[in-house]
Amino acid sequence: MSHFAKIENGVVPQVIVAEQDVIDSGLFGDGWVQTSYNTHAGQHPENRPLRKNYAGIGYTYDIQRDAFIPPQPYPSWLLVEDTCLWEPPIPMPTDGSPYKWNETTQSWDVWALQAPQ
Questions:
Q1: How is 20-74 classified by DSSP, letter by letter?
Q2: Three-class secondary structure of residue 113 per DSSP
Q3: Structure pTM?
Q4: Residues 9, 7: Cα–Cα separation, whole Å
Q5: What gap in Å lies between CA 48 and CA 38, rounded to an integer?
Q6: pLDDT score recorded for residue 18
Q7: I need a labelling partner for 8 at 20 to 30 A (CA). Which of 48, 63, 93, 97 fits?
Q8: Full DSSP string of 66-105
Q9: DSSP bridge partners of 108
Q10: 3-state SS assignment for residue 106
Q11: pLDDT digits (tens, 9 = 90+) for 83-116
């Protein structure tokens, strides 16, 4: 069995598991593109990546790149061609603290959990 993403206007609304012959039969209509559950950032544990990333609902299928691209998390984040993943304009600090991206200031803020009151 393989995973297939339905493509509608370049966007993935559904991912299913099916045999290739079922997809080829047209039983589920057309517009299906195979995706690999084990592919992330153009890497696969068995060195056979497929379409850069496993498709998810809301992902875009870019036919020119032959890649699934997740939704852009923030307008300032940039698409990395090699991985087809989004990265912030500045790297997140690696000091061990939890951070969240602040789009307004274009910087990382320390994220502090607040106890319920």
A1: HHHHHHTTT-S-EEEE-TT-BTTB-TTS---SSS---TT-EEETTTTEEEPPPSS
A2: coil
A3: 0.88
A4: 6
A5: 9
A6: 97
A7: 48
A8: TEEEPPPSSTT-EEETTTTEEE-SSPPP-SS--EEEETTT
A9: 101
A10: coil
A11: 999 999 999 999 999 999 999 999 999 987 665 6
73-78 long-range contacts (CB < 8 A, ≥24 apart) are 73/101, 74/101, 74/103, 75/103, 76/103, 76/106
Work out the average pLDDT over 31-39: 96
Residue closest to 36 by CA, chosen among 8, 21, 55: 55
Task: Give the mean pLDDT of 21-28.
Answer: 96
Residues paired with residue 15 on neighbouring β-strands, in sequence order: 5
**Considering only CA atoms, which of 31, 37, 42 is closest in space to residue 83?**
42
Per-residue pLDDT reduced to its tens digit, 48-79: 999 999 999 999 999 999 999 999 999 999 99
Q: How far is CA 38 from CA 16, 21, 23, 47, in A?
A: 15, 21, 20, 10
